[in-house]
């Protein structure tokens, strides 16, 4: 009774092996993240100070702070959000709630996924052609943000559509059967129960946008501009480009400065991701069905 | 327009279907169905799974418009008027309450669940809504259990309570027709009996089409019963006749006697 056969023993051994393999891969994944963070904190940490955060670069960017780049990144991200979120959410609502499930819809969905895979440098060149030259926005926050918006649109659409799909069809059917229109159903039932997922997607998008360099370097981000932008038609510095510039283009930058910039940038991204995770946890706690 | 059955005027019928056929993506689900549901009767529909009962209900309130691949041919008349002549299908659906097999408490408070239909129609005054909510919950035999927690979530009630909530919600539409689709599938027997009592009371005010998986439920409630089998209407007979061996088709007798299905 209950004697392990040879097959049982073999199965158990294989089970242990795979467990170890997957564990090992997971550790390999954590390692670079920990190293990047560790190196940045150790080497960039000493650069961080109030003065570093709140003063413009001086001395040919070899001294001073990063204020114009910090403010510029916030401008770029906010304008990009204003441009992409309404369009993306509306498109996702159409695709998820209204569009008939036919070949055209499936083709559009596929196109959106492919759009997300277009390299950012291609988006950059598109931005130059469309926004800087054709629409005559010049190299400006507006042109750069719109380029970022086009680039992040598929992410917003996919995130929104996925969170709309988490609302069960039965809820929609119950509403429709009462004589509710699709829009009434969306407003009363679908949106209130998916808004959390949509916001999470948006926040993740923000964090992605803030780190992008290629799409903004030809369309609106300046090499060096020790003033704060006054409006959307100004050029601006940006954290990501500033990091690239002082790491590779400017001689004699003290070593701690690029690490400091990188640390601030990654802290912004992590903080936003943290907010999004906290949000998700909070909302999971008050699930309604 | 066809002439009504002998001895009855067209206005006596709440639902008339003629040569109704339903297909999903070209695949037939129901075909050649013709019968009438009288006003203020409880009309039972029985039949095994996949016999087209639910599809039939969906054709009555034009849910084919909301269902990809669903095609309806033939005619369905509600209150004497072809449902496809309704320019506004939302108005049609508001006159028809629907209860589903699995209770669907919307993720709103109990109050908002019942007030939803009125709000969709533009009723805003709290006092009016209060009256509607209390009346409908009372008629669905749920008021006493939930009156102290109207602002808790309807979707977290027990199965039997949620099903009574959906009935209250359907009643809040002030329907002239109530369609019930196997409402007792996820409900305990005691609650089922309570809901059946509610339905018997509602008969005087509205027409009820009761699709049921329990043949005895049809016997308890329905004046006449239709038997659907694999996408066809086998027959429509007075319920008592059907259960006392007087069915026209031997398959009906076999089904109601529990020999298959």
> What's the CATH H-level homologous superfamily of the largest domain in chain B?
P-loop containing nucleotide triphosphate hydrolases
Number of strands of chain B: 10
> For the CA atoms, what is the radius of gyration of chain A?
24 Å
Secondary-structure element order of chain B, as H and E?
A: EEEHEEHEHHHHEHEHEEHH
Widest sheet: strand ordering of chain B: 6-7-8-3-9-10
The largest sheet of chain B, given as strand count, sense and whether it forms a barrel, is: 6 strands, mixed
Instruction: Sum up the overall morphology of chain A in one term.
Output: globular
Say how many strands of chain A there are: 2
Alpha-beta classification of chain A:
mainly alpha
Describe this structure in words.
- The complex is a heterodimer of chains A (289) and B (261).
- Chain A has helices at 6-44, 50-54, 67-98, 103-116, 120-134, 141-165, 169-177, 182-211, 214-217, 239-248, 256-284; strands at residues 57-58, 63-64.
- By secondary structure, chain A is mostly helical.
- In chain A, strands 1-2 form a two-stranded antiparallel sheet.
- Chain A is globular, with a radius of gyration of 24 Å.
- The two termini of chain A are 46 Å apart.
- The model of chain A has no long low-confidence stretch (mean pLDDT 90).
- Chain B is built from ten helices and ten strands.
- In chain B, the strands form two sheets. Chain B has a six-stranded mixed sheet, sandwiched between helices.
- In chain B, strand 1 (13-24) and strand 2 (27-38) form a beta hairpin.
- Mean pLDDT of chain B is 90; it is low at 1-7.
Write the topology of this structure.
The complex is a heterodimer of chains A (289) and B (261).
Chain A: H1 6-44, H2 50-54, E1 57-58, E2 63-64, H3 67-98, H4 103-116, H5 120-134, H6 141-165, H7 169-177, H8 182-211, H9 214-217, H10 239-248, H11 256-284
Antiparallel strand pairs in A: 1-2
Helix pairs in contact in A: 1-11, 3-6, 3-8, 3-10, 4-6, 5-6, 6-8, 7-8, 8-11, 10-11
Chain B: E1 13-24, E2 27-38, E3 42-46, H1 53-60, E4 70-78, E5 81-82, H2 89-94, E6 96-99, H3 110-120, H4 126-139, H5 143-146, H6 159-172, E7 177-181, H7 189-202, E8 207-211, H8 215-221, E9 224-229, E10 232-238, H9 239-243, H10 250-256
Parallel strand pairs in B: 3-8, 3-9, 6-7, 7-8
Antiparallel strand pairs in B: 1-2, 1-4, 4-5, 9-10
């Amino acid at each position: 009774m209950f004697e392990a056969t040879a097959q049982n023993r073999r199965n158990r051994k294989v089970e242990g092996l795979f467990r170890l393999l997957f564990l090992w891969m997971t550790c390999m994944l954590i390692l670079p993240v920990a190293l990047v963070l560790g190196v940045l904190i150790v080497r960039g940490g000493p650069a961080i100070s109030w003065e570093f955060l709140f003063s413009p670069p001086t001395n040919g960017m070899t001294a001073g702070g990063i204020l114009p780049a910090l403010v510029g990144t916030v401008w770029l991200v906010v304008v990009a959000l204003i441009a992409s979120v309404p369009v993306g959410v509306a498109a996702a609502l159409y695709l998820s709630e209204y569009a008939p499930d036919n070949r055209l819809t499936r083709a559009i969905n596929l196109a959106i996924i492919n759009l997300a895979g277009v390299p950012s440098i291609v988006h950059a060149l598109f931005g130059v052609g469309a926004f800087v030259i054709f629409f005559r926005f010049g190299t400006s926050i507006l042109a750069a943000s719109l380029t970022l918006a086009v680039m992040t649109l598929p992410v917003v659409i996919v995130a929104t559509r996925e969170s709309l799909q988490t609302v069960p069809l039965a809820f929609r059917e119950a509403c429709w059967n009462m004589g509710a229109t699709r829009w009434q159903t969306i407003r009363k039932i679908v949106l209130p129960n998916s808004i959390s997922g949509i916001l999470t997607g948006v926040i993740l998008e923000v964090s992605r946008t803030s780190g992008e360099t290629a799409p903004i370097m030809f369309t609106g981000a300046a090499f060096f501009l020790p003033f704060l932008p006054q409006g959307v038609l100004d050029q601006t510095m940006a954290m990501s480009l500033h990091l690239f510039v002082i790491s590779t283009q400017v001689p004699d930058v003290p070593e701690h400065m690029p690490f400091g910039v990188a640390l601030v940038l990654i802290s912004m991204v992590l903080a936003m991701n943290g907010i999004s995770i906290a949000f998700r946890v909070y909302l999971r706690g008050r699930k309604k069905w | 327009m066809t002439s009504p059955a002998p001895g009855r005027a067209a206005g006596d019928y709440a639902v008339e279907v003629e040569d109704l056929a339903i297909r999903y993506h070209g695949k037939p689900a129901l075909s050649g169905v013709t019968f009438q549901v009288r006003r203020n009767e409880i009309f039972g529909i029985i039949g095994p799974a996949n016999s087209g009962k639910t599809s039939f209900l969906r054709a009555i309130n034009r849910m084919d418009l909301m269902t990809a691949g669903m095609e309806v041919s033939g005619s369905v008349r509600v209150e004497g008027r072809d449902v496809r002549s309704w320019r506004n299908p939302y108005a049609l659906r508001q006159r028809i309450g629907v209860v589903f097999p699995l209770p669907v408490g919307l993720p709103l408070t109990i109050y908002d669940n019942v007030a939803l239909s009125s709000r969709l129609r533009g009723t805003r005054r709290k006092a009016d809504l209060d009256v509607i909510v209390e009346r409908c919950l009372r008629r669905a035999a749920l008021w006493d259990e939930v009156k102290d927690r109207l602002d808790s979530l309807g979707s977290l009630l027990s199965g039997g309570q949620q099903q009574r909530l959906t009935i209250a919600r359907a009643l809040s539409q002030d329907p002239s027709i109530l369609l019930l689709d196997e409402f007792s599938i996820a409900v305990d027997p005691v609650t089922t009996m309570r809901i059946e009592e509610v339905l018997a009371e509602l008969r005087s005010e509205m027409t009820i089409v009761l699709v049921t998986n329990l043949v005895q439920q049809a016997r308890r409630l329905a004046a006449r019963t239709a038997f659907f089998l694999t996408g066809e209407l086998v027959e429509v007979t007075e319920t008592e006749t059907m259960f006392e061996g007087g069915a026209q088709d031997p398959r009906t007798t076999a089904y109601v006697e529990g020999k298959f299905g």
